[in-house]
Write a structure and sequence with these properties.
Elements lengths: L6 H6 L18 H6 L10 H21 L1 H11 L7 H17 L1 H11 L1 H19 L5 H26 L8 H29 L2 H22 L26 H30 L4 H29 L1 H20 L5 H15 L1 H14 L4 H11 L1 H18 L1 H38 L11 H5 L5
Length: 466
């Protein structure tokens, strides 16, 4: 399929209406009602680039700050800070912060719909600040569960979820590039805060490191809250009344289920990579500093890879690139991580895998908008994020269990297979999208026969930019 169909065709066209404004049977005073039916066209830039910067900063100071947990984790384990706390407890805290962010989706969407962009972001800013500040005073493991786990996770949800739904509305043909640039903040922020936290822990201690991160996140997220704004006419007229913040009926749609499965299995691999590489380096006899460099290179890969994937997604098709990059990550895990026993080999794997292991978060927004449309985007995100709660919570505990029972080889194979399963899900989504494109063309041609079921060998292997 040589042409780029779907949402971009609709967005590149002029304003459309359900009736002809030049009809001789239409009087001039009926024009306003016709305007109500018009679809709004994204500016594809302009203030959208300011919003891109704001979302970049939010990613830096939510996902990026959260990735520094690996530094704190190493310190807690090395010094037995909380007597009686198990490795499983610490592993759960790292995943809990992400799963709580996703679990907050229904409430965040309702709050966002009721109070708007700025109050939602400001609440998230205060929660993140309070969580990090509270973690600096933790004297028992359950204090960390409440602060680093629950409070930080909900703060991240109130910041990240609105930002991830707002940004795609500002762009059409440049949507994947903008989202890729914005989500690269998670990797670059993770790189900066992993290195900074490692230095601060050695110089000022755990407590003041938490406080420094709290102040940095407060300043950056406050600025982002003031800069980021939604488009007031992303959907207009009567169609705007149909926009829902959350709708469980989305679970009955094939395209949403496929995106959700893609996210579920790849998160099991992504979280394992994010938190396990430093401990794997230690198991191979490498120093703590070498392990932190491995983690830093993984985050550097995330920061570099996401904008590149976004750029090529717009050029070669968003679903095409998402499928290929997810599969590539699985192959890298099986082909490079399994034999990576030395420090140079592990550095090379971390950098290469980092460029593609975050493909889901870098492309999920544009891909979901491609298959569900902007009107259903919030509702679809809601159910997809809920589906990701359990893998983000239990990915690292599962990995630790595999390591404890049969060594790191089983964990490596597990991660690689999860990414390959995710690629298969997006490949099926591509077949579904091909069917929708064919059906649309058939309707326009006045003939809907011969389309067939969405899952078929021909549609799986059809070429073109999808």
């Amino acid at each position: 399929m040589a042409s780029d169909d779907g949402i971009e065709l609709a967005e590149a066209s002029p304003h459309r209406s359900t009736s002809n404004p030049t009809s001789p049977h239409r009087s001039s005073d009926e024009a306003p009602s016709n305007a109500i039916e018009q679809e709004d066209i994204p500016p594809n830039g302009g203030y959208g680039w300011v919003c891109t910067v704001a979302v970049f900063l939010i990613n830096c100071h939510t996902w990026g700050v959260n990735s520094a947990w690996s530094i704190f984790l190493a310190q807690y384990l090395a010094h037995s800070t909380f007597p009686g706390a198990s490795r499983l407890s610490y592993a759960l805290i790292g995943g809990l912060s992400i799963s709580q962010a996703l679990l907050s989706t229904p409430l965040v969407n309702l709050f966002f719909a009721r109070f708007g962009t700025r109050p939602t972001l400001l609440l998230g800013t205060l929660l993140v600040f309070a969580a990090l500040l509270g973690a600096s005073y933790a004297s028992a493991i359950w204090h960390l569960f409440l602060s680093q786990g629950v409070a930080f996770g909900w703060g991240m949800g109130f910041l990240y979820i609105p930002a991830s739904t707002i940004l795609p509305r500002w762009f059409s043909t440049r949507r994947s590039l903008a989202v890729g640039l914005a989500t690269s903040g998670a990797g670059l922020g993770g790189l900066a805060y992993n290195l900074a936290a490692g230095h601060l822990v050695e110089t000022v201690g755990l407590q003041w490191t938490y406080r420094v991160l709290a102040l940095c996140s407060l300043g950056a997220n406050l600025l982002s809250s003031l800069l980021l704004r939604d488009r007031p006419r992303a959907v207009s007229g009567r169609s705007a009344e149909k926009v829902k913040a959350f709708d469980f009926r989305e679970l009955g749609r094939v395209e949403v289920v496929l995106v959700g499965f893609w996210g579920t299995v790849t998160e099991l691999g992504y979280i394992t990579l994010l938190y396990s590489l430093p401990s794997y380096a230690a198991a191979k006899g490498l120093s703590t500093r070498q392990g932190s460099l491995v983690s830093a290179l993984l985050n550097l890969g995330l920061g570099v890879g996401r904008p590149l994937i976004g750029y090529y997604s717009d050029a070669f098709g968003r679903i095409n690139v998402a499928t290929a990059m997810t599969a590539l990550c699985g192959l890298l895990c099986l082909g490079l991580w399994i034999p990576a026993d030395s420090f140079p080999a592990l550095l090379a794997f971390a950098l290469l895998a980092g460029t593609v292991c975050g493909t889901f978060w870098g492309t999920m927004g544009p891909v979901t908008a491609e298959v569900v449309g902007l009107q259903r985007l919030n509702a679809s995100f809601g159910v997809i994020f809920l589906a990701l709660v359990w893998p983000t919570t239990f990915a690292e505990p599962i990995a630790l269990r595999l390591v404890d029972t049969s060594g790191y080889l089983s964990a490596k194979i597990f991660v690689g297979v999860m990414f390959l399963l995710g690629a298969g899900s997006v490949w099926l989504l591509r077949s579904w999208k091909v069917t929708q494109i064919e059906r649309k063309r058939a309707v326009e041609a006045g003939c809907e026969e011969g389309i067939g079921f969405w899952f078929s060998p021909r549609k799986l292997f059809v070429g073109g930019k999808i």
